[in-house]
Specification:
- It is a single chain.
- The chain is of the alpha+beta class.
- It has one domain: Hotdog Thioesterase (Thiol Ester Dehydrase, Chain A).
- The protein is about 25% helix and about 40% strand.
- It contains three helices and six strands, in the order αββαββββα.
- Strands 1-2-4-5-6-3 form a six-stranded antiparallel β-sheet.
- Strand 1 and strand 2 form a beta hairpin.
- It is globular, with a radius of gyration of 15 Å.
């Protein structure tokens, strides 16, 4: 694992929202994988995980896949679309993201979520842009 990948993982774990979502992240070269054990507190009134959970996993997996290729600047999500395919109420969700285009200032990444049975749960497609903020200015990245 490169130092950049380790710093991205530290940044992810240090985010306040990940104190609620007890997920783990692994970053590779143009790829990222996230594991999230589902909790009933994530469920909507119909008894399965709220769409916000799927969005977070898809966006994070695609985002960190793209961020793995940018070592000096933070990136930002410009647009993101999701397709919800199957509801999940319990077990563990696994999200994987990979970069499909890295052209200039814009990166495009796709992600997907599968459940414990390896059934496809959701698909995401994101566009990310290099920002003006330096990664070295982010405290959790410097750790």
């Amino acid at each position: 694992m490169t130092d950049h990948f380790r710093k991205l993982q530290n940044m992810y774990q240090g985010a306040a929202i990940n104190q609620i979502f007890k997920s783990t992240l692994e970053v590779g070269d143009g790829s990222a994988a996230i594991i999230l054990p589902l909790d009933v507190s994530f469920n909507h009134a119909f008894g399965s995980a709220h769409g916000a959970v799927y969005f977070k996993l898809l966006d994070d997996a695609a985002y960190f896949a793209a961020a793995s290729l940018v070592e000096d600047r933070c990136i930002v999500t410009v647009s993101f679309s999701i397709q919800l395919i199957k509801a999940a109420a319990s077990g563990v969700l696994s999200a994987e993201g990979h970069v499909v285009s890295n052209a200039g200032r814009i990166l495009v990444a796709e992600s997907q979520i599968v459940d414990d049975s390896d059934d496809l749960v959701a698909i995401g497609h994101g566009t990310f842009a290099r920002s003006g903020q330096r990664l070295s200015d982010v405290e959790e990245y410097r750790l």
